[in-house]
Design brief:
Layout (H helix, E strand, L loop, with lengths): L17 H6 L1 H10 L4 E6 L2 E6 L2 H10 L4 E2 L7 H7 L8 H11 L8 H16 L7 E3 H18 L8 H19 L12 H24 L21 H5 L5 H32 L1 H15 L13 H13 L6 E5 L3 E3 L2 E3 L4 E4 L1 H4 L43 H18 E5 L8 E2 L3 E2 L5 E6 L1
Parallel strand pairs: 2-8
Antiparallel strand pairs: 1-2, 3-5, 4-12, 5-8, 6-7, 9-12, 10-11
Helix pairs in contact: 4-8, 6-7, 6-15, 7-8, 7-11, 8-9, 9-11, 11-13, 11-15, 13-15
Bound molecules: protoporphyrin IX containing FE.
């Protein structure tokens, strides 16, 4: 794809491109996108990263030649594992396959209507605490809501009546702040964790363990004939039955749960938060959305079946995760030496693909920086060349919760916008915060006006 070439800033003699990436990761990636080179060889202090810019190379690494690439070493750093635990996101080989197969039943299409009802009712419950004209901390509210949703998937309704979503949301915030300040470049600067980070990690583990214990204490008799349709995910998880029979395996199970809690709540909450912010910034687009919701839903809450009749709502979600992909970088490690484009990658070479960079290439998305949900009305994400649009990743390691997440974000958005018009509480520019996810900056407030 031809585009005007731009020179990258000269690398620092000692730190290479690290200072540029550290001070403005998204700006740096955009410059890499404009450089016109297929594969950028970036020096980050003593480490080398190969950044892909061509969608077909992304598709090769994630899909067609996926068996030549594994999850990268930096994903196994202590900082990431404090956040995610050692679960399915980081595992490889037979361990990954076991986890993947164990979770598959939870994401079966037949379960989606039931999940849709859960999402709508938990969103309605959250909205009960809102008053028209009052400001909400959008990311915090959405994190708590998506935590409640993932909590319901994992434990059905067997969660304690405590403030666990708020506690976990606060711990996640602290861990993300620490991650982004010290680990901007994945694993490049392995400083010891701060006291606050260790406290948050401990508290997150304790909250997860409490949820597991509460489930065990209050679950119905396992021998009773429970309806498969309402079976929560926890008993299907690797490690559950081992600890059930008394083997001390709690940390293994709690890591699996922590991964699903973090993967299943964080990205969805980020997607809905950005969608609401973008709608607040674009009142003309909000009006189109309101018109669709009013026509299709009237005064009732949405369910899964409604989504088929809400193409503009789905387009808002597709466009939001294009512009602000909750996971903005995806990494892989080459098992063997290979050549991508004209660049030789050694065995063990660290390869990065960036949704932020590729989703904004003008060849695939005209006027790429503009928020234009309309572009999706006559376009199916599946029609886009492979590797050019991958908010959920691609290949065998594609997001397991992709369909669930698309439903979740659309239903939450539809439920909120059916009732409220979002407005930003401040006119300050909203600069995305590139931590593990691409979050809105901490504390962005939205005023919700009853419609
Ligand atoms: C808008 C919301 C979401 C986005 C944008 C998103 C994005 C992603 C991406 C890009 C990956 C692949 C990472 C890689 O290739 O290295 C991934 C993996 C994963 N996601 Fe999501 N995700 C979302 C929501 C969810 C939800 C709601 C769940 C669970 C309920 C979930 C569960 C997972 C799991 C289990 C994996 C690991 C899959 C594997 O390695 O086999 N995600 N997600």
């Amino acid at each position: 794809m031809s585009s005007p070439q731009m020179q990258l800033a000269t690398p620092h003699f000692l730190l290479g491109h690290l200072p540029y990436f550290n001070s403005d990761p998204l700006g740096f990636l955009s410059e890499c996108g404009a450089s016109g080179r297929d594969v950028m060889t970036l020096r980050m202090a003593h480490k080398t990263l190969f950044l892909l810019r061509e969608p077909e190379d992304v598709a090769r690494v994630l899909v067609t030649e996926h068996h030549q690439f594994i999850k990268p070493a930096w994903l196994r750093t202590a900082s990431i594992s404090r956040l995610l635990g050692d679960g399915i996101v980081t595992s490889e080989g037979e361990i990954w396959r076991g986890q993947h197969n164990a979770y598959l039943p939870a994401f079966e299409v037949s379960r989606m209507p039931e999940y849709g009802d859960i999402i709508s009712s938990l969103t309605a419950e959250t909205m009960e605490s809102w008053t028209s004209g009052a400001a909400i901390d959008v990311q915090m509210e959405m994190t708590q809501l998506t935590l409640k949703v993932i909590g319901r998937l994992l434990f059905s309704s067997l969660t304690p009546k405590s403030d666990w979503p708020e506690e976990i949301a606060c711990d996640l915030n602290i861990l993300l702040v620490h991650f982004s300040s010290r680990y901007r470049v994945y694993g490049m600067a392995p400083f010891p964790p701060s006291l606050a980070e260790m406290r948050a990690a401990k508290s997150l583990n304790a909250s997860i363990c409490r949820l597991i214990c509460h489930y065990r204490e209050t679950r119905p008799d396992p021998s009773s004939n429970t309806d498969k349709g309402t079976q929560p995910l926890l008993p299907m998880m690797p490690g559950y039955s081992l600890s059930d029979t008394g083997v001390r395996n709690t940390s293994f199970l709690s890591d699996q749960v922590k991964t699903i809690v973090a993967a299943g709540s964080e990205s969805s909450s980020v997607a809905v938060s950005w969608a609401l912010i973008l709608l607040a910034q674009h009142p003309e687009i909000s009006c189109k959305l309101f018109a669709e919701l009013d026509t299709v839903l009237g005064a009732r809450a949405p369910n899964l079946a409604d989504l088929f009749y809400l193409p503009f709502t789905r387009a808002v979600v597709n466009e939001t995760v294009r512009l602000f992909p909750p996971l903005w970088m995806t990494g892989r490690e080459a098992i063997h030496a290979c050549v991508i484009g004209n660049t030789k990658i050694p065995a063990g070479g660290q390869i990065m693909t960036s949704q932020w960079l590729i989703h904004r290439l003008p060849g695939y998305f005209p006027n790429p920086d503009a928020f234009r949900p309309e572009r999706w009305l006559n376009m199916d994400p599946r029609d886009i060349p492979k590797g050019a649009y991958f908010p959920f990743g691609a290949g065998p390691r594609v997001c397991m919760g992709k369909n669930f997440a698309l439903m979740e974000t659309s239903l939450i958005l539809a439920s909120i916008c059916r009732k409220y018009r979002p407005e930003l509480a401040s006119q300050d520019p909203i600069v995305p915060w590139a931590t593990v996810t691409l979050r809105p900056p901490l504390g962005v407030k939205l005023i919700l006006h009853a419609r």
